[in-house]
């Protein structure tokens, strides 16, 4: 049985800080699919065939931002009002076409997520139009419908328009409340304005207000991070994600640090290292839980039950996610799909399709992947490890036995605890959960089960 430090981490008196050198990726996965070509016949077949998925989501991408954040590596298009409105009109035409298909109408959707980009850069009229189009899709009772974005520019007109058109969950990228840290990250608005706005929005009777906080930003000391946690608790929001900043290739932060240049007044080296970020995570988790916030995943907590985080939890379960918009990703009938980001080619595809008699959604430029034969198994791993508990009844007995050497190594290194019914991650394991997922997939690759039929 091959075990390597990449799979198991290393022995350390403080595994939270030292089990791995760095967080090696934002998400974990393994090669289970191959690129395929999809012709018009297959595309038409997909949309005319009822879904067999038990749980479903709708993802809609708005690829516009008014400003590029220093940590972002996928800025796509400037958010000029006319450009955004043109895009929303074309997007709604595609949604309208899709809403009448057998694929869409065959089963209800559990959740809808409008992401980006910065969806809150849409105008109030655009928000309302998009919300009304979403209503054409069948949804379960109480479906979670999320609008992602930032607080800057999200005025009462947009807020009321979004509520009236059906949005009931709002996710704002705050990252830090500290004004100087925010400016270094390319964020807008000062601390006091953010707190005032979040408090006002959180008073709504039913809508869920969620924010993202990052730890490890340039200039973000332990003291500032501690104040960020105090601020998010005082703000009245219903949920919070704590994300570790990763140097993404191509981001302004990565480029500046590579050249030894400052980021808007902060020295390039003045940023928490991996060990300090580990302590920041520990402090954040303990602070929230001591304040009676419930942990829903390794990075997400809620103050009360109105926050459900349905899309985020189901997306890790391998559900069907129908993607719409330039840059959107998802899967149809088990086939992976990632629309290309080039907006011009996205428009061109629709202009060409409009000359035909088809009433189905346009097949825009995209990458398609064959179904992953291990999709259900991989989803069980990701869902369990992300939640901090991998129940063994979600796996076969043979698979559990095959993984025991790896799980025992994690336990020896302080990353997990084994019981008869489950693997429970420690605080250190939750912090390194993406590394653990990557290690698990590497373990399965290097230690192939003798009887593959027993794996699922």
Automatic annotation (TrEMBL):
Q: Which InterPro entries match?
A: Aldolase_TIM (IPR013785), Coproporphyrinogen-III_oxidase (IPR034505), Elp3/MiaA/NifB-like_rSAM (IPR006638), HutW (IPR026332), rSAM (IPR007197), rSAM_sf (IPR058240)
Domain Radical SAM core: residue ranges:
50-282
- Offer an example of a GO molecular function term for this protein: metal ion binding
Keyword Transferase tagged: yes
Gene Ontology terms describing biological process = methylation; porphyrin-containing compound biosynthetic process
Which UniProt keyword terms apply here? Iron, Iron-sulfur, Metal-binding, Methyltransferase, S-adenosyl-L-methionine, Transferase
Q: Which domain of life is it from?
A: Bacteria
Pfam families per UniProt:
Radical_SAM
Instruction: Kindly provide the name given to this protein in its UniProt entry.
Output: Heme anaerobic degradation radical SAM methyltransferase ChuW/HutW
Organism of origin is Echinimonas agarilytica
What's the gene?
A: hutW
């Amino acid at each position: 049985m091959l075990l390597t430090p990449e799979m198991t981490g290393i022995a350390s008196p403080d595994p939270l800080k030292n089990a791995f050198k760095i967080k090696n990726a934002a998400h974990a996965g393994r090669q289970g699919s191959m690129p395929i070509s999809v012709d018009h016949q297959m595309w038409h077949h997909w949309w005319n065939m009822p879904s067999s998925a038990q749980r479903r989501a709708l993802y809609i991408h708005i690829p516009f931002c008014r400003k590029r954040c220093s940590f972002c590596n996928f800025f796509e298009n400037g958010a000029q009002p006319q450009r955004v409105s043109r895009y929303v009109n074309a997007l709604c035409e595609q949604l309208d076409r899709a809403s009448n298909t057998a694929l869409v109408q065959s089963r209800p959707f559990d959740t809808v997520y409008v992401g980006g980009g910065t969806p809150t850069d849409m105008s109030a009229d655009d928000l309302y139009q998009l919300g009304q189009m979403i209503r054409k899709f069948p949804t379960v009772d109480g479906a979670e419908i999320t609008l992602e974005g930032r607080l800057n520019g999200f005025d009462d007109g947009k807020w009321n328009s979004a509520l009236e058109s059906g949005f009931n969950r709002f996710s704002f990228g705050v990252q830090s409340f500290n004004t100087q840290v925010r400016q270094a990250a390319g964020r807008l608005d000062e601390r006091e304005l953010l707190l005032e706005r979040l408090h006002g929005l959180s008073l709504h009777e039913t809508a869920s207000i969620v924010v993202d906080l990052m730890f490890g930003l340039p200039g973000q000391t332990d003291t500032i991070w501690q104040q960020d946690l105090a601020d998010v608790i005082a703000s009245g929001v219903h949920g919070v994600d704590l994300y570790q900043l990763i140097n993404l290739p191509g981001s302004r932060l990565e480029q500046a640090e590579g050249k030894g240049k400052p980021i808007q007044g902060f020295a390039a080296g003045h940023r928490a290292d991996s060990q300090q970020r580990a302590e920041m995570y520990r402090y954040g988790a303990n602070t929230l839980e001591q304040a009676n916030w419930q942990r829903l995943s390794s990075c997400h907590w809620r103050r009360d039950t109105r926050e459900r985080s349905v899309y985020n939890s189901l997306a890790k379960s391998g559900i069907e996610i129908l993607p719409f918009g330039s840059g959107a990703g998802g899967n149809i009938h088990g086939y992976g799909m990632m629309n290309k980001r080039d907006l011009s080619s996205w428009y061109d595809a629709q202009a060409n399709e409009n000359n035909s008699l088809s009433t189905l959604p346009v097949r825009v430029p995209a990458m398609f992947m064959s179904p992953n034969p291990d999709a259900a198994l991989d989803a069980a791993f990701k869902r369990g490890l992300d939640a901090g508990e991998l129940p063994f009844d979600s796996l076969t007995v043979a698979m559990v036995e095959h993984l025991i050497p790896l799980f025992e190594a994690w336990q020896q290194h302080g990353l997990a605890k084994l019981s008869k019914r489950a693997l429970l991650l420690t605080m250190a394991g939750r912090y390194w959960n993406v590394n653990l997922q990557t290690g698990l997939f590497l373990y399965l690759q290097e230690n192939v089960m003798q009887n593959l039929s027993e794996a699922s």
